[in-house]
Amino acid sequence: xxxxxxxxxxxxxxxxxxxxxxxxxxxxxxxxxxxxxxxxxxxxxxxxxxxxxxxxxxxxxxxxxxxxxxxxxxxxxxxxxxxxxxxxxxxxxxxxxxxxxxxxxxxxxxxxxxxxxxxxxxxxxxxxxxxxxxxxxxxxxxxxxxxxxxxxxxxxxxxxxxxxxxxxxxxxxxxxxxxxxxxxxxxxxxxxxxxxxxxxxxxxxxxxxxxxxxxxxxxxxxxxxxxxxxxxxxxxxxxxxxxxxxxxxxxxxxxxxxxxxxxxxxxxxxxxxxxxxxxxxxxxxxxxxxxxxxxxxxxxxxxxxxxxxxxxxxxxxxxxxxxxxxxxxxxxxxxxxxxxxxxxxxxxxxxxxxxxxxxxxxxxxxxxxxxxxxxxxxxxxxxxxxxxxxxxx
Length: 393
What we know:
The protein is mostly beta strands. It has helices at residues 75-83, 171-179, 252-260, 349-357; strands spanning 2-6, 10-13, 22-27, 32-35, 40-50, 70-71, 88-91, 106-114, 117-122, 126-130, 136-146, 166-167, 184-188, 205-213, 215-227, 247-248, 265-268, 284-300, 304-308, 314-324, 344-345, 362-366, 382-390. Residues 1-8 and 14-19 have low confidence and may be disordered.
């Protein structure tokens, strides 16, 4: 249980920590190799460029070491999309565009090895991701294309596996949107699932890795917005702005719980509380919350979420959200202007889902605006919910 006093944005999160990391530096034209004896690669940080004159300086014209402010934006995404979820990953500078042509550059990567389910599916076959009851799929990485001449070649004509620089940059995003938060997921390894064919004439395969996790989600306890003493958040404030210690916003708990319950991370500011209870007083938000183990499910707009409990158990909703609070969830194939509003949410989502699903052993719910009050007409939304399975008394 945590208590938080923040002046501006309140951040509630349930987090886990990685235990160790490997670091690799690869100079110039050389191949960078990331490998895991146990588990799969999960990239942590990537730098491509030059930030000092000492790294990779051997036998190089000194003029090519002078620019120490050379850095490639998007380097992390490029390498993570290529390597996350693999047991072995080899890349060179060609996966990046050149940020400074006259400078001798290097790739500096840190990564860790995560225990995971590792699956390979040849083109036109199907892969099944499966977790035990009470657990959900957490994708580490997905790759669709070809990077070797040995995987999925049985019965394939020779000319169809020669291209080993074939990859689909959207593989992680596509598989995540299909499978994230589910306990079971079937996925077809075929071109139509990823949009355009990344390399026509090449026989491809899908390689992915995932973990099964018991998610921990936010459950809000007491919330206060206002001022109950003269000391909290008073630094640098005139005495008149901290004198009113009977300032309190009614409905603060409901407002914050409706926004945050059932989320892994929730960020809010004072705007969620509506009208100012005391305009001339400098206020603060004081929140106590805990992190509960739960089934955590995402459903993009117009798709379906399935809530399922074992026989003899029933659904107990922790929280439901419908709207948008980021620019990364459920954006595949969505026009740019449809995910810019990240302050969009439906205050009745908890009530709506609870009325439909609470107390049942299974429940199917459609993430579409006709089920909720429409919060933002021009924004592509998603539903995020968390629930427990309980034995009835």
